[in-house]
Amino acid sequence: MLDYPLLAALAAVIRTGSFERAAQQLHVTPSAVSQRVKLLEERLGSVLVVRGQPCTGTAAGQRLCQHVEQVALLESELRGALPGLAPADGPTTLRIAVNADSLATWFIAAMAEVPGCLFDLVLDDQDHSAEWLRKGEVLAAVTASTAPVPGCNSHPLGALRYRATASPDYMRRHFADGVSAAALAGAPCLTFNRKDRLQVQWLRLALGGMAPGDVPAPPTHWLPSTHAFVDGALAGLGWGMNPEPLVADHLAAGRLVELVPGRPLDVPLHWQQSRIASTTLADLSRAVLRAGRRELHPDGTAAG
Amino acid sequence: MLDYPLLAALAAVIRTGSFERAAQQLHVTPSAVSQRVKLLEERLGSVLVVRGQPCTGTAAGQRLCQHVEQVALLESELRGALPGLAPADGPTTLRIAVNADSLATWFIAAMAEVPGCLFDLVLDDQDHSAEWLRKGEVLAAVTASTAPVPGCNSHPLGALRYRATASPDYMRRHFADGVSAAALAGAPCLTFNRKDRLQVQWLRLALGGMAPGDVPAPPTHWLPSTHAFVDGALAGLGWGMNPEPLVADHLAAGRLVELVPGRPLDVPLHWQQSRIASTTLADLSRAVLRAGRRELHPDGTAAG
To answer: So where does this one cross the membrane (chains A, B) (predicted)?
Structure first.
């Protein structure tokens, strides 16, 4: 078996970002934590922690850290079954990858249904969140990816509906003569980050099956925050694909308008979860599927 | 002089994240972009782009990209002075580092006052945003750091006020016997990411000058989103340091309460901007300082 006191010290440093906070969490001195991590690094012959502000794990360090958390999760199950065991060191932490727009609209309701569990959320684009699962860095992910990651189950959640929205003033400035391909090519849009393809997907849809190379590439602001997207649209900075739940009131009140009324973009989402036997993870999965059914739009894949 | 058509191709690939989108932006074929980047890499003898989904710059690639954008900014100034020059390829993009809480509360109002300019925002903790400026990756930053970065001017903005907040139900569950050090040590809090020290700073303040090693280290959720912090507090997941502008209504309505009434934490912010001669950047700086004066709390350093 691996040396778990050493591994626990490593995981605490990587998760808290500092030797001091890890020491506090483990109720030992920072120098004890430092010795344990050094010993582990010597045994493995590789650096596991990049010392900095904050301290971060190397690829090997991250992998070990993930292993420690999976073992802790299994231990918490065992304690449920065998109450005579020594009490746990603390509540279980589930590391989950989720797209920012789900977090901003429906995911927190699911989290709140699993009390007594701590969450460590990794935010990534829905087209990339499954990679965290594939790398073993999270236990579950909200993802656009339908193909199950090896070792995981995949469940359809329904679709998050997006509306291409801008302020009325912005529409007057850029689309006084209508929302044409030429006008779209010159009107600034909002893009979350380099992974965000939603604006391009909507342009292709709205312009009716244009070849990818012909779809206009508008000038863009890079704005990596879901609510900043809404605020940026309200302030007239540009148009962007905003989740319907966040803009429905603004649309009804006329503070935002759709570029092309009645032309939403639906993004089907899936819940992929590790098959690791954990009642906490199973509880979360049930809560997530319930919240998805409640808050998302049923879509074609939901029947599959 | 450097070979700018090659550099422009490199910058477009790194900024858009793909050879195809770079080609579209530059109105050339993807193969032409690919050849230009390869030629540049051969001349420099180092890889500049990590090919992937999305493509990203290596450290050298990022540095060249930043140079191209500074030159483009200087060119846009020149075009203002000499209208006879060939028209610009597109609007100027300003790359700025800002903390997520400023973006969520007051920064977009400043951005909206500088029309005709595109923004490329990098989000980072206020204690770390100045590093982007130091590395030359952004032209300006909203930062907690007072010491001017070399080559930059620093202006005090005022302080963003935070309130330690939780839901009434959460308070009943965890602080029925009062907000003591012992109760705080067991009650889950929210932490944005490994760089976020606000909860610890507030604990130290609220518990009256405790030695750093004695401040409780509560169990925590990791929740890297400003609005998810507010939503997480409302849902009873934990307590967290929330920006006053986002929770004032919730506090007034009793949906959230302060852990210790009337014990806020003020975080003084500064605007640090590169001394590069740019009227666009100067316009933004004036708008940022105005928005800061309007939306932030005057603090001691504001008089300096």
So the answer is: none
